[in-house]
Specification:
With about 230 residues, the chain is an alpha/beta fold. It has one domain (about 30-220): 3-Layer(aba) Sandwich (Rossmann fold). About 45% of the residues lie in helices and about 20% in strands. The chain contains 7 helices and 7 strands. The chain has helices at about 5-25, 30-40, 60-65, 95-105, 125-145, 165-175, 205-215; strands at about 50, 70-75, 85-90, 110-115, 150-160, 175-180, 190-200. Strands 3-2-1-4-5-7-6 form a 7-stranded mixed beta sheet, sandwiched between helices. Helix 5 links the parallel strand 4 and strand 5. Helix 5 (about 125-145) runs parallel beside helix 6 (about 165-175). The longest helix is centred in the middle third of the chain and has 22 residues, at about 125-145. The radius of gyration is 17 Å and the shape is globular. Residues about 205-210 and about 220-225 have low confidence and may be disordered. It binds S-adenosylmethionine. S-adenosylmethionine binds near residues 27, 117 and 118.
């Protein structure tokens, strides 16, 4: 990364960090979900939202505001989340079945939207971090299959890399529309992007078919490809 890019990155991080403090949000990540919502019109009043990887709670605060008092918001994370008015939280690993049962129990029905800003612990070895990020996304899709309403929406963070096409193909088997987006609040040099999927259709397609499709297509998404 050049000195100039690093300087710009740092300025952007500071800007959103300051803004989050001023506006009472727990993390600058709040602005990412606001910008995603402003662009893709995700939240509606009265929606039920499940946020995977929700700590410290920046996305939960925005979801709570945007779905209003008639909505339902549930956050899940390995780490505890300080209470937020009108938000239910679960401490647990989303890849563990007990956590999913706890979620089903608290949700009492199906969700309109599943969000995931999950990130693996960074090892410093990019291929491992990328693979773990893809694995978290795949686990989140498994959860969508259990809790998301037909026509529901799914927003997920993912670290870019050569397995992104496998994820995109799996999403395309489940959703009518799948788009990649990088909100302004994401650092330009960051490897994270967000995938916004709309129109959920529960499907019986296996991962193996998705991997085959990826090999045939040989698609590879880079930051320059973003809309
Ligand atoms: C970038 S933070 C989320 C920030 C959050 N969106 C916000 O606005 O405050 C990523 C979170 O993913 C969580 N996470 C990673 N793997 C997870 C897993 N298997 N189950 C649940 N949470 C997980 C981490 O504990 C971490 O808190």
């Amino acid at each position: 990364m050049s000195m100039h890019a690093r300087w710009l990155d740092e300025r952007r991080r500071e800007h959103y960090h300051k803004l989050a403090k001023e506006e009472g949000y727990r993390s600058r990540a709040s602005f990412k979900i606001m910008q995603i919502d402003d662009h893709f019109n995700i939240f509606k009043r009265g929606n039920s939202i499940v946020d995977l990887g929700a700590s410290p709670g920046g996305w939960l605060q925005v979801a709570r505001e945007r779905v209003g008092a008639s909505g339902k918001v549930i956050g899940v994370d390995l780490k505890p989340i300080k209470p937020i008015n009108g938000v239910t939280t679960i401490i647990g690993d989303i890849t563990n079945n007990d956590t999913v049962f706890d979620l089903l129990d608290k949700l009492k029905g199906k969700a309109d939207i599943v969000l995931s800003d999950m990130a693996p612990n960074i090892t410093g070895c990019y291929s491992i971090d990328h693979a773990r990020s893809i694995h978290l996304c795949m686990s989140a899709i498994d959860i969508c299959n259990r809790i998301l309403k037909i026509n529901g929406q799914f927003v997920t963070k993912v670290f870019m890399g050569n397995m992104l096409n496998i994820l995109m193909n799996r999403l395309k088997t489940h959703f009518q529309s799948v788009k990649i987006y990088s909100p302004d609040a994401s650092r330009p040099t960051s490897s994270e992007i967000y995938v916004i999927s709309k129109g959920f259709l529960p499907s019986t397609t296996s991962n193996i078919q998705c991997i085959k499709k990826s090999k045939d297509n040989n698609e590879f998404y880079k930051r320059g490809d973003l809309p």
